[in-house]
Write a structure and sequence with these properties.
- This protein is an all-alpha fold.
- It has one domain: A middle domain of Talin 1 (Up-down Bundle).
- The protein is built from 14 helices and no strands.
- Helix 1 packs antiparallel against helix 2 and helix 4 packs antiparallel against helix 14.
- The longest helix has 33 residues.
Amino acid sequence: MLAIEASSTTTVCLIFAGCALVIALLGTKMAGYADTIADRTRFGEALIGSVLLGAGTSIAGIVTSTSTAASGAADLSVANAMGGIAAQTMFLALADIFYRKVNLEHAAASPVNLGQATTLIILVTLPIMAWAAPPYTILGVHPLTPLLVGVYIVGLHGAHKTHKHPMWLPRQTDDTRDEDDDEATDHRSLWLIGARFAALVVVVGFTGWLVGEAGIELSQRFGISQGVVGALGTAIVTSLPELVTTIAAVRRGALQLAIGGIIGGNMFDALFIAPSDVAYSDGSIYNAISDRTVFWMALVLVMTAVLLAGLLRRERQGPGGIGWESVLLLGIWAGGAALQIMLG
């Protein structure tokens, strides 16, 4: 087992940076594989983006949150999850900059993404309620933990039903991009593509463990709060696949895959708290986090609401060629990050 705590500070920083590079590079490959699988199955880009691309690229984050919770770092564990959701939502604004034709939220209209964004708001609100309630566990696990998993499954089922039998459809315009416009160019066996995708998930998962261990060490050595390290350190590093895959998907024209990957990945990231609560040995992890971590939960709710409003409004063009919601998302995330850094 790699003893990171016995390594020099320089070595720990190099491990952290090296993991970021590996995660970013493998994320590019995962985007291509997920897009091909989406095109060659009947589940659609929005749903495949949420389940396959979202969960696959989030594997580093879930390993980081679970391993740090097992080490007793409750704030770092939950802040990693919430900071990752905030960063990934902000990534959509960056992807909007790369898609110059029209506002991304206008072109990638999808009722599935709207439904999943609503489910995400529920998944983030429930832990805040548990944090505010008296601490209570059954066999060391808070009752909310299995409920979170149930809400996630119900949300995915609802997304599948919406995709198969939508009760309403967005208005089609000249700039609306349908997932049928994006055809697969990789004609290798679907099993081979799936096996390669699974192999990348394993490597990225191990890298996520290294990120978590390095994050704990850096927090202790530099005297930085676990909340800051989690939300702005490990969260961003483990979210690099989402940044790479989102921009790659946008450049490939797979717009619903891009937004579905972010929103679905955010739904999956909200579940990080469930295994983290199981791994945390000092009671309920919901009651062990600080106000600063709850701040990131509230920030996630605001950013998701702004994104949801943008998906509903479908503005064609905003300032600088991107939508107003993208400008707001960038500003909200930057403001929240600056505040946390100033607080130390």
